[in-house]
Protein backbone atom coordinates (compact mmCIF):
# COMPACT_ATOMS: atom_id res chain seq x y z
CA UNK A 1 0.00 0.00 0.00
CA UNK A 2 1.28 3.45 -0.87
CA UNK A 3 0.40 6.59 1.08
CA UNK A 4 -2.09 7.96 -1.41
CA UNK A 5 -1.90 11.17 -3.37
CA UNK A 6 -3.52 14.60 -3.49
CA UNK A 7 -4.53 15.71 -6.99
CA UNK A 8 -4.98 19.44 -7.61
CA UNK A 9 -6.57 20.99 -10.68
CA UNK A 10 -7.30 24.58 -11.67
CA UNK A 11 -10.65 24.81 -13.45
CA UNK A 12 -10.08 25.76 -17.10
CA UNK A 13 -12.22 28.25 -18.98
CA UNK A 14 -13.91 25.51 -21.01
CA UNK A 15 -15.02 23.75 -17.79
CA UNK A 16 -16.58 26.83 -16.23
CA UNK A 17 -20.33 26.59 -15.72
CA UNK A 18 -20.44 22.84 -15.17
CA UNK A 19 -21.27 21.32 -11.81
CA UNK A 20 -18.41 19.79 -9.83
CA UNK A 21 -19.94 16.32 -10.26
CA UNK A 22 -20.45 16.70 -14.02
CA UNK A 23 -16.89 17.98 -14.45
CA UNK A 24 -15.28 15.14 -12.51
CA UNK A 25 -17.35 12.42 -14.18
CA UNK A 26 -16.52 13.76 -17.66
CA UNK A 27 -12.84 14.55 -17.12
CA UNK A 28 -11.88 11.49 -15.06
CA UNK A 29 -13.90 8.53 -16.43
CA UNK A 30 -11.71 6.00 -14.60
CA UNK A 31 -14.38 6.36 -11.86
CA UNK A 32 -18.12 6.35 -12.53
CA UNK A 33 -20.54 9.14 -11.67
CA UNK A 34 -21.81 7.52 -8.45
CA UNK A 35 -18.25 7.07 -7.18
CA UNK A 36 -17.51 10.76 -7.72
CA UNK A 37 -20.82 11.66 -6.01
CA UNK A 38 -19.81 9.60 -2.98
CA UNK A 39 -16.34 11.18 -2.84
CA UNK A 40 -17.82 14.67 -2.88
CA UNK A 41 -20.33 13.73 -0.14
CA UNK A 42 -17.67 12.24 2.14
CA UNK A 43 -15.34 15.22 1.67
CA UNK A 44 -12.47 13.56 -0.21
CA UNK A 45 -13.10 15.96 -3.14
CA UNK A 46 -13.37 19.67 -2.44
CA UNK A 47 -13.42 23.00 -4.27
CA UNK A 48 -12.49 26.48 -3.00
CA UNK A 49 -16.06 27.74 -3.09
CA UNK A 50 -19.58 26.42 -2.86
CA UNK A 51 -19.55 22.85 -4.28
CA UNK A 52 -23.24 23.23 -5.19
CA UNK A 53 -22.58 26.26 -7.41
CA UNK A 54 -21.40 26.04 -11.07
CA UNK A 55 -17.63 25.97 -11.38
CA UNK A 56 -15.73 29.17 -12.19
CA UNK A 57 -12.49 29.39 -14.18
CA UNK A 58 -9.49 29.43 -11.84
CA UNK A 59 -11.13 27.59 -8.95
CA UNK A 60 -9.01 24.91 -7.30
CA UNK A 61 -10.39 21.36 -7.19
CA UNK A 62 -8.64 18.99 -4.76
CA UNK A 63 -9.05 15.21 -4.59
CA UNK A 64 -7.42 13.33 -1.71
CA UNK A 65 -7.01 9.82 -3.07
CA UNK A 66 -6.43 7.29 -0.27
CA UNK A 67 -3.58 4.80 -0.48
CA UNK A 68 -3.86 1.82 -2.80
CA UNK A 69 -1.92 -1.36 -3.45
CA UNK A 70 0.50 -0.85 -6.33
CA UNK A 71 1.81 -3.57 -8.64
CA UNK A 72 5.25 -4.80 -7.64
CA UNK A 73 8.31 -3.40 -9.43
CA UNK A 74 12.08 -3.33 -8.83
CA UNK A 75 12.81 0.07 -7.30
CA UNK A 76 16.61 0.07 -7.22
CA UNK A 77 18.72 2.05 -9.69
CA UNK A 78 22.39 2.71 -10.46
CA UNK A 79 23.98 6.16 -10.42
CA UNK A 80 25.94 6.45 -13.69
CA UNK A 81 26.87 10.15 -13.65
CA UNK A 82 26.32 13.03 -11.24
CA UNK A 83 27.42 16.61 -10.72
CA UNK A 84 25.86 19.76 -9.29
CA UNK A 85 23.21 20.06 -12.02
CA UNK A 86 22.73 16.59 -13.55
CA UNK A 87 22.03 13.02 -12.49
CA UNK A 88 22.05 10.04 -14.84
CA UNK A 89 20.75 6.74 -13.52
CA UNK A 90 20.35 3.20 -14.79
CA UNK A 91 16.72 2.07 -14.67
CA UNK A 92 15.96 -1.65 -14.30
CA UNK A 93 13.51 -3.39 -16.60
CA UNK A 94 10.06 -3.54 -15.01
CA UNK A 95 10.21 -0.15 -13.25
CA UNK A 96 8.00 2.62 -14.71
CA UNK A 97 9.75 5.95 -15.21
CA UNK A 98 6.74 8.08 -14.20
CA UNK A 99 3.52 7.56 -12.22
CA UNK A 100 0.54 6.14 -14.10
CA UNK A 101 -1.35 2.93 -14.67
CA UNK A 102 -1.67 2.26 -10.93
CA UNK A 103 1.97 3.13 -10.17
CA UNK A 104 2.95 6.02 -7.89
CA UNK A 105 5.69 5.13 -5.40
CA UNK A 106 6.97 2.12 -7.35
CA UNK A 107 8.40 4.42 -10.03
CA UNK A 108 11.86 5.69 -10.95
CA UNK A 109 10.76 9.27 -10.36
CA UNK A 110 9.69 8.55 -6.78
CA UNK A 111 12.89 6.60 -6.03
CA UNK A 112 15.18 9.26 -7.50
CA UNK A 113 13.42 12.11 -5.68
CA UNK A 114 13.77 10.25 -2.39
CA UNK A 115 17.53 10.56 -2.98
CA UNK A 116 17.62 13.87 -4.87
CA UNK A 117 14.54 16.01 -4.13
CA UNK A 118 13.39 18.13 -7.05
CA UNK A 119 15.19 16.12 -9.74
CA UNK A 120 13.24 16.25 -13.00
CA UNK A 121 13.53 13.67 -15.83
CA UNK A 122 14.45 14.96 -19.29
CA UNK A 123 12.98 11.92 -21.06
CA UNK A 124 11.41 8.60 -20.22
CA UNK A 125 11.83 4.91 -21.00
CA UNK A 126 9.09 2.32 -21.32
CA UNK A 127 8.53 0.23 -18.22
CA UNK A 128 10.35 -2.82 -19.60
CA UNK A 129 13.15 -0.87 -21.32
CA UNK A 130 16.22 -0.73 -19.09
CA UNK A 131 19.10 1.73 -19.13
CA UNK A 132 19.93 5.42 -18.91
CA UNK A 133 17.51 8.10 -17.75
CA UNK A 134 18.84 11.65 -17.37
CA UNK A 135 17.55 14.04 -14.67
CA UNK A 136 18.12 17.78 -14.23
CA UNK A 137 18.53 19.15 -10.72
CA UNK A 138 17.40 22.69 -11.54
CA UNK A 139 15.07 24.46 -13.96
CA UNK A 140 17.82 26.20 -15.97
CA UNK A 141 19.57 22.91 -16.70
CA UNK A 142 16.26 21.31 -17.65
CA UNK A 143 15.49 24.13 -20.11
CA UNK A 144 18.95 24.02 -21.70
CA UNK A 145 18.98 20.26 -22.21
CA UNK A 146 15.36 20.19 -23.39
CA UNK A 147 16.43 22.62 -26.12
CA UNK A 148 19.21 20.22 -27.18
CA UNK A 149 16.61 17.45 -27.36
CA UNK A 150 14.33 19.56 -29.55
CA UNK A 151 17.24 20.37 -31.89
CA UNK A 152 18.07 16.64 -32.06
CA UNK A 153 21.56 17.24 -30.71
CA UNK A 154 21.35 14.50 -28.07
CA UNK A 155 22.66 11.15 -29.33
CA UNK A 156 20.84 8.09 -27.98
CA UNK A 157 22.13 4.56 -28.58
CA UNK A 158 20.04 1.54 -27.64
CA UNK A 159 20.88 -2.16 -27.71
CA UNK A 160 18.09 -4.40 -29.00
CA UNK A 161 17.55 -8.09 -29.70
CA UNK A 162 15.57 -8.38 -32.94
CA UNK A 163 14.07 -11.43 -34.61
CA UNK A 164 15.01 -12.85 -38.01
CA UNK A 165 18.19 -12.34 -40.00
CA UNK A 166 19.19 -8.90 -41.26
CA UNK A 167 20.58 -8.92 -44.78
CA UNK A 168 22.36 -5.61 -44.32
CA UNK A 169 24.87 -4.62 -41.65
CA UNK A 170 23.28 -1.16 -41.51
CA UNK A 171 19.82 0.02 -42.46
CA UNK A 172 17.47 2.95 -41.87
CA UNK A 173 13.75 2.88 -41.05
CA UNK A 174 11.70 6.03 -41.66
CA UNK A 175 8.11 4.76 -41.44
CA UNK A 176 5.74 7.40 -39.97
CA UNK A 177 4.31 6.64 -36.52
CA UNK A 178 0.84 7.60 -35.33
CA UNK A 179 -2.27 6.31 -33.54
CA UNK A 180 -4.13 3.32 -35.01
CA UNK A 181 -7.25 1.52 -33.73
CA UNK A 182 -6.79 -1.08 -31.00
CA UNK A 183 -9.50 -3.26 -29.42
CA UNK A 184 -8.28 -2.82 -25.82
CA UNK A 185 -6.80 0.69 -25.74
CA UNK A 186 -8.98 2.40 -28.34
CA UNK A 187 -5.82 3.49 -30.14
CA UNK A 188 -2.12 2.69 -29.88
CA UNK A 189 0.90 4.16 -31.62
CA UNK A 190 2.07 2.09 -34.57
CA UNK A 191 3.32 2.38 -38.14
CA UNK A 192 0.82 4.60 -39.96
CA UNK A 193 0.96 6.51 -43.26
CA UNK A 194 -0.93 9.32 -41.49
CA UNK A 195 1.55 9.45 -38.61
CA UNK A 196 4.39 11.83 -37.82
CA UNK A 197 7.86 11.47 -39.40
CA UNK A 198 10.24 9.16 -37.52
CA UNK A 199 13.82 8.07 -38.22
CA UNK A 200 15.75 5.12 -36.81
CA UNK A 201 19.24 3.92 -37.76
CA UNK A 202 20.18 0.29 -37.10
CA UNK A 203 23.66 -1.25 -36.96
CA UNK A 204 23.93 -5.04 -36.61
CA UNK A 205 26.32 -6.13 -33.86
CA UNK A 206 25.99 -9.93 -34.01
CA UNK A 207 23.88 -12.48 -35.86
CA UNK A 208 22.49 -15.79 -34.63
CA UNK A 209 20.37 -18.28 -36.55
CA UNK A 210 17.03 -16.57 -35.96
CA UNK A 211 17.87 -13.26 -34.22
CA UNK A 212 20.44 -10.49 -34.16
CA UNK A 213 21.81 -7.95 -31.72
CA UNK A 214 21.75 -4.36 -32.96
CA UNK A 215 22.79 -0.91 -31.86
CA UNK A 216 19.86 1.39 -32.58
CA UNK A 217 20.04 5.18 -32.90
CA UNK A 218 16.82 7.19 -32.89
CA UNK A 219 16.79 10.70 -34.32
CA UNK A 220 13.16 11.28 -33.34
CA UNK A 221 11.40 10.30 -30.12
CA UNK A 222 8.03 8.87 -31.13
CA UNK A 223 6.30 6.56 -28.63
CA UNK A 224 7.60 2.97 -28.85
CA UNK A 225 9.65 4.01 -31.89
CA UNK A 226 12.27 1.25 -31.75
CA UNK A 227 9.70 -1.51 -31.22
CA UNK A 228 7.57 -0.18 -34.07
CA UNK A 229 10.39 0.50 -36.51
CA UNK A 230 12.16 -2.83 -36.07
CA UNK A 231 8.82 -4.57 -36.55
CA UNK A 232 8.09 -2.41 -39.61
CA UNK A 233 11.40 -3.56 -41.08
CA UNK A 234 10.31 -7.18 -40.59
CA UNK A 235 12.31 -7.72 -37.41
CA UNK A 236 10.08 -7.38 -34.31
CA UNK A 237 11.98 -7.35 -31.03
CA UNK A 238 12.33 -10.86 -29.65
CA UNK A 239 9.54 -11.40 -27.14
CA UNK A 240 7.52 -8.31 -28.06
CA UNK A 241 3.91 -9.27 -27.33
CA UNK A 242 2.33 -6.30 -29.13
CA UNK A 243 4.11 -5.29 -32.35
CA UNK A 244 4.43 -7.71 -35.24
CA UNK A 245 5.84 -7.56 -38.79
CA UNK A 246 4.71 -4.39 -40.52
CA UNK A 247 4.93 -2.32 -37.34
CA UNK A 248 1.33 -2.69 -36.19
CA UNK A 249 -0.38 -4.58 -33.36
CA UNK A 250 -0.29 -8.37 -33.79
CA UNK A 251 -3.76 -9.41 -35.03
CA UNK A 252 -5.76 -11.17 -32.32
CA UNK A 253 -3.22 -10.41 -29.58
CA UNK A 254 -4.58 -9.43 -26.15
CA UNK A 255 -1.28 -7.76 -25.22
CA UNK A 256 -1.28 -4.20 -23.97
CA UNK A 257 1.24 -1.44 -24.59
CA UNK A 258 2.85 -1.78 -21.16
CA UNK A 259 3.38 -5.54 -21.34
CA UNK A 260 6.97 -6.77 -21.28
CA UNK A 261 8.91 -9.62 -22.80
CA UNK A 262 10.99 -7.70 -25.36
CA UNK A 263 14.74 -6.97 -24.99
CA UNK A 264 15.71 -3.30 -25.19
CA UNK A 265 18.31 -1.26 -23.30
CA UNK A 266 19.27 2.44 -23.40
CA UNK A 267 23.04 1.95 -23.54
CA UNK A 268 24.54 5.37 -24.29
CA UNK A 269 23.65 9.06 -24.11
CA UNK A 270 25.74 11.93 -25.53
CA UNK A 271 25.03 15.61 -24.95
CA UNK A 272 26.74 18.94 -24.31
CA UNK A 273 26.87 19.99 -20.68
CA UNK A 274 24.78 23.18 -20.29
CA UNK A 275 27.33 24.70 -17.89
CA UNK A 276 30.42 24.57 -20.14
CA UNK A 277 29.52 23.01 -23.51
CA UNK A 278 31.79 20.00 -22.92
CA UNK A 279 30.50 16.72 -24.38
CA UNK A 280 29.28 14.27 -21.76
CA UNK A 281 29.04 10.56 -22.63
CA UNK A 282 27.06 8.33 -20.26
CA UNK A 283 27.12 4.56 -20.79
CA UNK A 284 25.19 1.71 -19.21
CA UNK A 285 26.29 -1.90 -19.63
CA UNK A 286 23.51 -3.93 -21.28
CA UNK A 287 22.10 -6.98 -19.47
CA UNK A 288 23.72 -10.30 -20.28
CA UNK A 289 21.30 -11.32 -23.06
CA UNK A 290 22.07 -8.09 -24.95
CA UNK A 291 25.87 -8.29 -24.81
Biggest beta sheet summary: 10 strands, mixed
- Uncertain regions spanning at least 5 consecutive residues: none
Total helices: the number is 5
Beta-strand level of the residues, as a percent range? Answer: 25-35%
- The proportion of residues forming helix, as a percent range, comes to 10-25%
Q: What is the averaged pLDDT score?
A: 94
Structural class: alpha+beta
Distance between the termini: 37 Å
The total beta strand count reads 15
Keywords:
3-stranded antiparallel β-sheet; 291 residues; alpha+beta; single chain; 15 strands; 16% helix; globular
Describe the secondary-structure layout.
Blueprint: E1 5-10, H1 20-27, H2 33-42, E2 45-47, E3 60-65, E4 78-82, E5 86-91, H3 108-115, E6 120-121, E7 130-136, H4 139-150, E8 155-163, E9 170-173, E10 177-182, E11 186-191, E12 200-207, E13 211-218, H5 225-232, E14 264-272, E15 279-283
Parallel strand pairs: 7-14
Antiparallel strand pairs: 1-3, 2-3, 4-5, 5-7, 6-7, 8-13, 8-14, 9-12, 10-11, 12-13, 14-15
Overview in brief:
With 291 residues, the protein is α+β, with helices and mostly antiparallel strands. Helices cover 16% and strands 31% of the residues. Helix 1 crosses helix 2.
Can you put this structure into words, describing what you see?
The protein is α+β, with helices and mostly antiparallel strands. The chain contains five helices and 15 strands. The strands form three sheets. Strands 4, 5, 6, 7, 8, 9, 12, 13, 14 and 15 form a ten-stranded mixed sheet that branches. The protein has a three-stranded antiparallel sheet with strand order 1-3-2. A hairpin with a 6-residue loop joins strand 14 (264-272) and strand 15. Helix 1 packs across helix 2.
